[in-house]
């Protein structure tokens, strides 16, 4: 099956042989054996090129899935008798990673000294495939169905402003009142210039005209503290500000939907021992966090 997949990828017996480190004769022999066992012709042969038959085109994707499953099984069995080792690439939002992942990394490395961690903190979503990421912590509603998600918790979103701004501009009583307020918009949000609130069991979407757009929740916090306007910020970013009165929560009866915090990895791929053990530690440590939404 591996030989057939290589021939299909290269359209050549000789190129497939080079890729697999064998002879063209051995490739041809194995293809004939596979076709005989299936009772099907999988490849058209000419003196210049090899192409898939209709049966070959139907067989190839299933063949590749079986090869992947076999490789995953072999990796799992190899992992069972070994300690976690190698490099693990993990990504997370900047402030969340700085605040909550540091204890996870410390505890994990103490228990797995043969593993190195490449922790990439970024407020943009990194592609697990294109950027070689093993595990990704994301805050928000997920749209990519090719990923497996483990729910770690959820984050409150707080609509707030500095008391000095509210004393001057007035305290909005309804989300629609925000249309007449200066607003600070976090561009990491998927919606463009819109905030969505819960009005009872219904969603209420308000279009705002931001005075400032910035791709960072901590930067939104800084601008709000300066009295620049109203913003929506994850609760863990402004817990101390709310407790001290530097920021004031508003529209609390119209709170936005809470954002899920998820740990993502690629579907249909074997999770290495290093990744599985990291998931165990992060689930344990994050479950012990009790101050995400304590405001």
Summarize the structure.
This protein folds into 3 domains: 2-80, Arc Repressor Mutant, subunit A (Orthogonal Bundle); 86-151 and 266-287, Periplasmic binding protein-like II (D-Maltodextrin-Binding Protein, domain 2, 3-Layer(aba) Sandwich), CATH 3.40.190; 157-254, D-Maltodextrin-Binding Protein, domain 2 (3-Layer(aba) Sandwich).
CATH homolog superfamily of the largest domain: Periplasmic binding protein-like II
Count helical runs: 9
The SSE order reads: HHHEEHEHEEEEHEEEEHEHEEH
Which segments are poorly predicted (pLDDT under 50) over 5 or more consecutive residues? none
Query: What order do the strands of the largest sheet run in, or round the barrel if closed?
Result: 4-3-5-14-6
What is the residue-averaged pLDDT?
Answer: 86
Shape: elongated
Overall structural domain count: 3
CATH architecture of the largest domain: 3-Layer(aba) Sandwich
Helix/strand class: alpha/beta
Total E-strand runs:
14
Q: How much of the residues is beta strand, in percent?
A: 25-35%
CATH topology of the largest domain: D-Maltodextrin-Binding Protein, domain 2
Q: What is the C-level CATH assignment of the largest domain? A: Alpha Beta
Q: Which value, in Å, is the CA radius of gyration? A: 27 Å
Binned, the helix content reads: 40-55%
Taking the sheet with the most strands, its summary is:
5 strands, mixed
Rounded to the nearest angstrom, the distance between the terminal CA atoms is 59 Å
